[in-house]
Amino acid sequence: MGENLSQPFEKSSMTPEEIRKINREQRIQTIAFGFMIAITLLAFIAVGADVVPGSFAIPFILGLAGIQLFLQLYYFMHLKDKDHGWPNTFIVSGIVLVIPTIVALMLLIGVTKY
Amino acid sequence: MAETTDLSKGLPSHPEKATLEGKNKFLGFWVFLAGETTMFATFFGTYLGLRNGTGSGPEAADIFSLPLVFIMTMILLTSSLTSVFAMFAMKKNQFKKMKIWMWVTVALGTAFLGFEIYEFVEYVHYGLGFTTSAFASSFYALVGLHGAHVLFGLCWISLLLIRYNKSGITLTNAPKFYVASLYWHFIDVVWIFIFTVVYLMGIGG
Amino acid sequence: MVREATNTLQKSVLWDWLTTVDHKKLAVLYLISGTLFFLKAGLMAVFMRIQLMFPMNDFLSGQTFNEFITMHGTIMLFLAATPLLFAFMNYIVPLQIGARDVAFPFVNALGFWLFFFGGLLVSLSWFFGGAPDAGWTSYVPLASRDYGGLGIDFYVLGLQVSGIGTLVSGINFIVTIINMRAPGMTMMRMPLFCWTTLVTSILIVFAFTPLAAGLALLMLDRMFDGMFFIPGEGGNVVIWQHIFWIFGHPEVYILVLPAFGMISEIIPTFSKKRLFGYTAMVFATLIIGFLGFMVWMHHMFTVGIGPIANSVFAIATMIIGIPTGIKIFNWLFTMWGGKLTFNTAMLCASSFVPTFVLGGVTGVMLAMAPVDHLYHDTYFVVAHFHYIILGGIVLGLIGATFYWYPKMFGHKLNETLGKIMFWMFYVGFHLTFFVQHILGLIGMPRRVYTYLEDQGMDTMNMISTIGAFVMSAAIILLVINIVYSAMKSPREGGDPWDGRTLEWATPTPVPEYNFAQTPQVRSLDPLFYEKIHGDGTMKPAEPIGDIHMPNGSIYPFTISLGLFIAGFGFIMLNMENAIISPWIVIAVGGIITFGSMALHSVKEDHGYHISKETVEQMEKEVGTNG
C-alpha cells in the first residue's frame, strides 16, 4: 500500500456513466457561477445606482450575500454531496454560533442600552 | 485500518478521500474552516461595532470606490470557478488540465492581491492610515486579515504546484490539492461578506 | 529486546522525545509540563494567601500581587488545566475507541510544542521587567498601550502561540474520534470520556478562534497603535470584554467537560454498574456545550449593556443548570445500589458531586443579574469559580491520575498515601474557599492586595490561608506518593481495576501500536461485555499483520520554536533598548516556522511498517492482554 501512494495513475477508474455525471455536475457549477455573477451585479447596482433607498438596499444585499454563501458552500465546496454530514454539522454550527457574536459586538457595546 | 478502495482500475473517482489519511485531512480541514468562520466573525463584529467611530478621519462613504471593488470581486469569484474546474480535472485524472486551472487561479489571486495593495495605498493617500480612527483600524484589520489569507493561499498553492509539477495525480497529493481548493473557496466566501458588509453597506448605508 | 526493532528505539532518548508523534509519549510530555506549570501557579497562590493572612500585611507589594493574580489565573487555565486534561485525552481516547494512533500524529506533536513554547514565552516575562499585571482577563484600557506594561505583551504573544497549539490539538481530537473508531464502535457506544473530549474539542475550535482574533486586536493596539479600544478615536472598550468572554465562558466548559467525562468513567468502574442514563448524559453534554456559547454576557452584567440583554443572558445561564442537574443525578443513580469500592480515585469522583453542586448553586446565584451587582468582583465570585475549578476539574484530574496511572506507568499509586492526600486536600479546599463566600458577601473585593483590620475579615482570611497550607501539603504528599510508588509499587497487568472500557484491553506497558489487531466492539463498555458474554478478551476485527506507523518528526518542534522567536520579536518592538532590530528577530522566527512548514509539506513521508513477526514477538513479550 505504502509504495503506490506516490504513483500517478495511467487512467481514471470512472465509468462512462460517471464521466457523464461529472460533466453534468461541471455544467451545473458553471451555471451556478453565472448566477453568482448576476446577483453580485444586482447587489452592486442596488447600492451604486442611487435609486434604491438604503432601508431596502441593505437587507436586500445581505439576502443576496446569503444566497451566494449557500451557493459557494453547497455547490463549489460540495457540501450538498453525500459523505458531507460532519462538515455540514461543523459549518452550520459555526454559522449559528457566529450570529450572537456579531449581534453583540455590533449592538451591545454600551453605546445604546438594550 | 483496512483499505477498501480498488486501485487496479485507475484513479478512484474521489482521489481526495480514497485513503484514510485523505479522509482525515478532508474532515480536519472542514473543522478548521468552521473555526475560521468564528474568527472572521469576530473581526466582522468588531468592524460593525466600530464602523461609525471615524473620529476626525474620513468616513467609509468618502473613500470607498465601487468600480475597484467590483473588479476585485469579479476576479476573486472567477478564481473560485477556476479552482472548481481544477478539481473536476483532478477527479478525471487530467493532470495537465488541473495544473493549468490551478495556475490560472493563482494568477487571478495575485491580481486580486495587487488590486488590494493598490487600494490600501490609495486610502493612505486619502488620509486613512491604520491609526487614523477606530474605523480605519478595524477596516484594515478585517480586510488585511483576508488579504493575508489570500497571500498564504497563493504561496501554498504555488508550492504544491511546483512540488508536484511532474508527479501526476497521486493518492498523496490529491487530498492536498483538494483542501487547498477548499481553502480558496473559503477565502471567496469571506470576500462575499466583505464586499457586502464593508463596501456596499459602507457606501449605501 | 525486540522492541528495539522498531524505529523509535533506534534513536537517542532526547531525540526520540523531541521528535515523537506517539500519542502516549505526547501525553506524558503534557502531563509533566502541565504539572510543572500547576506547581508554579500553585506556589503563587500560596504566596497570595500568605499576603492576605493578616490585615495590612506587607509580604508582597501591590504590584507583585497583581502580577501573581494575573499569572496564577493565566497559567492555571491555559498552561496547567488544559495540558493536564490534554494528557489524559491524548493517552486514553485513542485507546478507548480502539485506534492505533490519533488522526494527525504530526499535528498532535505540533499542538504540544506550540503550547510548550507559548507557556515558555509567557513565563519569560519575569525576566523582562515583570509579569503581566492586568488580571487573566486583561481588560482594556488597563491592558492597552497607555497603561499596561511590557508583561502584557508577553501575555498576548504567549497565549497566541499556545492558543494555536490548543486549537490544532482540538481539531486533531475531533477527527480522531469521528474517523478512527474501531469496527463496531458507534458514536453511541463511545465511553463518555470520548464524548466529552469530542464536545470539548468542538468548543475549542469555536472558542479559541475568537480568542486568537481578540489577542490579535490587543497586539495591534499595543504594538501598532490600533484604535480599537481608544474611545477618543471612535474605539470601544466593551468590545474586548465581549471577545474575551465569547472565548472565556466556553473555556470554562472546555475545562470542566473532560472532568465530567473522567468522573463518568471512574464512578461506573468502582460501582460495578454501567453508567446510569448514558444517552441522557451524552445529550446533556451536547446541550451544555451549545449553551456554553450563549451565556458569556453574564460576566458583564455590571457593564451597562442594558436590561433586556442582561435578562436574556441571565435566563440562558440558569438554563444550564438543567443539563448539569441531569448529570449530577445520573452519577448519583450510577452509585445507587452499586458494589462501591472507595479507593482514592472513587473518593475524588464521588466527592466531586456535592462540591460541584455547591459551585453550581453559587453559579445560579450569580446568574441573577440584579443580585450580581452585589456579588460582582467580590470574593464570592472567587469562591464560586474555585468550587468549579478545584472542586470540579482538579478533583477530576486527581481521580483520573489515580485511575489511569497503572495504564500509563505500569503501577498503581499508593492507596494509603492517596487517601490521606485526598482528605487533606478536601478539608483544605473547603477551609480555603467556603469562607470566601462570606468574605465576598460582607464586601471584600477580589484582586486587592490587602485589607484593613477590624472589618470582620481578619479571622476568615486566616482560616482561608490555613486551608491553603493544608491543600499545599496535600499536593506535596501527592508528589511524594508518585516518587514512593515508582519505587515500591508492584507492577500491574493490563487491567488492574477490572475495567469496563477498551483501554483496559491493552497490555501494560501499551505497545506503540496500541492494538496488535484492531478489536471488534460489540457493545457499550466493550471489555465488560466480553467478560460477561465472551472469554474476557476482545475479539479481533482483522488478522494479525504488518502495522503502519507514522515517522517521528522534528518539524513540530522547529515550527513552534520559530513562532516563539517571532513572538519574542514582536514583544521587542515595545522594549526600550533592544539589542538587535526586532524585525530581524521576527523575520528569523518567520523563516524558521514557514520554512519548516514548507519542508514538511514538500517531503512526502509515508511512515514505516512494523513487520508481522516483530508484532508477534512484541505481543509475546508484553504478555497477552488480560
From TrEMBL, chain A:
InterPro entries (alphabetical): Cyt_c_oxidase_su4_prok
Domain of life: Bacteria
Coiled-coil parts of chain: none
Membrane topology, from the record: Multi-pass membrane protein
Keyword presence, Membrane: yes
Keyword terms: Cell membrane, Membrane, Transmembrane, Transmembrane helix
TM annotation in the entry: 30-49, 55-77, 89-111
Subcellular location per the Swiss-Prot or TrEMBL entry: Cell membrane
Protein name (database record): Cytochrome c oxidase subunit 4
From TrEMBL, chain B:
Alphabetized InterPro entries for the sequence: Cyt_c/ubiquinol_Oxase_su3 (IPR024791), Cyt_c_oxidase-like_su3 (IPR000298), Cyt_c_oxidase_su3-like_sf (IPR035973), Cyt_c_oxidase_su3_a-hlx (IPR013833), Ubiquinol_oxase_su3_dom (IPR033946)
Record flagged with keyword Chloroplast: no
Topology versus the membrane: Multi-pass membrane protein
PROSITE patterns the record matches: COX3 (PS50253)
Record keywords, A-Z: Cell membrane, Membrane, Transmembrane, Transmembrane helix
SUPFAM superfamilies assigned to the protein according to its UniProt record, in alphabetical order: Cytochrome c oxidase subunit III-like
Location of this chain's protein in the cell: Cell membrane
Domain (Heme-copper oxidase subunit III family profile): residue spans on this chain: 1-203
Zinc-finger keyword on record: no
Main subcellular location: membrane
TM spans (from-to): 27-48, 68-88, 100-118, 138-162, 182-202
Family: Belongs to the cytochrome c oxidase subunit 3 family.
Protein name as annotated: Cytochrome c oxidase subunit 3
Native organism: Geomicrobium sediminis
Organism ancestry: Bacteria, Bacillati, Bacillota, Bacilli, Bacillales
UniProtKB/TrEMBL annotation, chain C:
Compartments (UniProt record): Cell membrane; Membrane
CDD domains: Ubiquinol_Oxidase_I (cd01662)
Domain Cytochrome oxidase subunit I profile as annotated: residue spans: 9-522
Catalytic activity, as annotated: 4 Fe(II)-[cytochrome c] + O2 + 8 H(+)(in) = 4 Fe(III)-[cytochrome c] + 2 H2O + 4 H(+)(out)
Membrane topology category: Multi-pass membrane protein
Keyword line: Cell membrane, Copper, Electron transport, Heme, Iron, Membrane, Metal-binding, Respiratory chain, Translocase, Transmembrane, Transmembrane helix, Transport
InterPro entries: Cyt_c_oxase-like_su1_dom, Cyt_c_oxase-like_su1_sf, Cyt_C_Oxase_1, Cyt_c_Oxase_su1_BS, Cyt_c_oxidase_su1_bac
Pathway named in the protein's UniProt entry: Energy metabolism; oxidative phosphorylation
Claim: Metal-binding is one of the keywords in the record: yes
Segments crossing the lipid bilayer: 27-48, 68-93, 105-128, 154-180, 192-219, 239-263, 275-296, 308-333, 345-369, 381-405, 417-442, 462-484, 554-573, 579-599
Pfam families documented for this protein: COX1 (PF00115)
Top enzyme category: translocase
Keyword Ribosomal protein on entry: no
EC number(s) from the headed UniProt entry: 7.1.1.9
Entry-linked PANTHER family: CYTOCHROME C OXIDASE SUBUNIT 1
Family: Belongs to the heme-copper respiratory oxidase family.
Function in brief: Cytochrome c oxidase is the component of the respiratory chain that catalyzes the reduction of oxygen to water. Subunits 1-3 form the functional core of the enzyme complex. CO I is the catalytic subunit of the enzyme. Electrons originating in cytochrome c are transferred via the copper A center of subunit 2 and heme A of subunit 1 to the bimetallic center formed by heme A3 and copper B.
Name this polypeptide is given: Cytochrome c oxidase subunit 1
